[in-house]
Amino acid sequence: MLHLDLDAFFAAVEQRDKPSLRGKPVVVGGVGGRGVVSTASYEARVYGVRSAMSTREARSRCPHAAFLSGRFHAYRETSRQVMGLLRAASPLVEPLSLDEAFVDLAHAGLPDLSVETVTAFAEDLRARVMEATGGLTASVGIGTSKFIAKVASDLRKPDALVVVAPGTERDLLRPMDVRVIPGVGPATAERMRRVGIHTVEQLEAVSEDEMVRLLGNAHGHWLYSLARAEDDRPVVAEREAKSVSVEGTYDTDLTDRKLMESLLTRQANEVAGRLRKGGLSGRTVTIKVRLHDFTTLSRSSTLPSPTDSAATIARLARTLLADLDTTGGVRLLGVGVSGLADWVQEDLFGEAAEEEVEVLPEVEVPHHSRRTWAPGMDVEHAEHGRGWVWGSGRGVVTVRFETASTPPGPVRSFKDDDPDLTPWRPPEPEDEDGT
């Protein structure tokens, strides 16, 4: 098994596309007072900045870092390039997120699976990833199981390759902290600490019965096996869709409850259309609501049988919204359906088919007269060309004009309603694999 993890992915993409930030601390995530760090470059990590840390604390630790809101279109496109390379190498690729995946090397067409052969393969793969992504590095681990490959890829980050030879897995694991094992979070680690278990070697010495007594049946058996480097999980190349959802982010906070209900109704209609197109239905309807202070809430309701009815999904979504306090304003609304099945229970509520059709209300979403200029976003100026937002406020937006293929560029400031300055987005990629 091979595990590939792109190093400090979001921050690395920003540094690639913004020459003036190369070699400097970069933090990607929420930039407001309640924001959270998504990714920090290695230059920022030197100052103690970590993922999931509050942006407020990150700023106090590294005030000179560039704090950017993120550009998911750039991350998705870079991920698509990397996953394409992996799928060209082996038909069994299991993406875990935009920046990491497992690859089954037994199906990669290699002459053998010796340490020398897989090492040469991985080095070539890392070089191709760097070339395809414009300089991004990847840490790669190779082992006899998913668990060992993942542990190996974390050992010497960034930009490293670690191959764990068959038969050496336990020697590698024994000195490590028990938290290296998937499923050992803070609560489990604390429970182990109380009984004197700190390392994998100490965990290995515990009997299976004692492990089950300490951690429960499923968790105990699982950790007992992993402590002995026993992991037979296969690489799952194609994961079935677990949910279908639609969401929207709005330029100005929504406060009109009727407007929110109308937007949810339209989103439910779109979700239902996607379900029917895929021959699917679902039992659980979920709404996602992000409030004015970036607090994100979700509420769900589960039906006795699956449905693909827009009216049913919309009614449940509106009912779920009614239980939330949205008086402070809403930045984002979304509707999703999970618990998917490939069949539908007709007349779920004993309603006639024609009653399942709702007339969608006219919706006009209010918007600011001035655009929102998020730090890091791509922009284009009629005279100066492409660049990115360095900062904004008090009616002014400051832009550094540079791209991945230019030297560090000049900085210019404009009124934030300057008609010559517009957001820039790349053309939408062709629809591939039905996604």
Automatic annotation (TrEMBL):
Alphabetical keyword list: Cytoplasm, DNA damage, DNA repair, DNA replication, DNA-binding, DNA-directed DNA polymerase, Magnesium, Metal-binding, Mutator protein, Nucleotidyltransferase, Transferase
Identification of the protein by name: DNA polymerase IV
Catalytic activity: DNA(n) + a 2'-deoxyribonucleoside 5'-triphosphate = DNA(n+1) + diphosphate
Similarity remark: Belongs to the DNA polymerase type-Y family.
Subunit: Monomer.
Enzyme class: transferase
Cofactor: how bound: Binds 2 magnesium ions per subunit.
Chain positions covered by the region annotation Disordered: 402-435
Domain UmuC positions: 1-185
Binding site for Mg(2+): D5, D99
Site positions (Substrate discrimination): F10
Compartments (UniProt record): Cytoplasm
Cross-referenced Gene3D superfamilies: 3.30.70.270, 3.40.1170.60, 5' to 3' exonuclease, C-terminal subdomain, DNA polymerase, Y-family, little finger domain
Cofactor or coenzyme needed: Mg(2+)
EC number: 2.7.7.7
Domain of life assignment: Bacteria
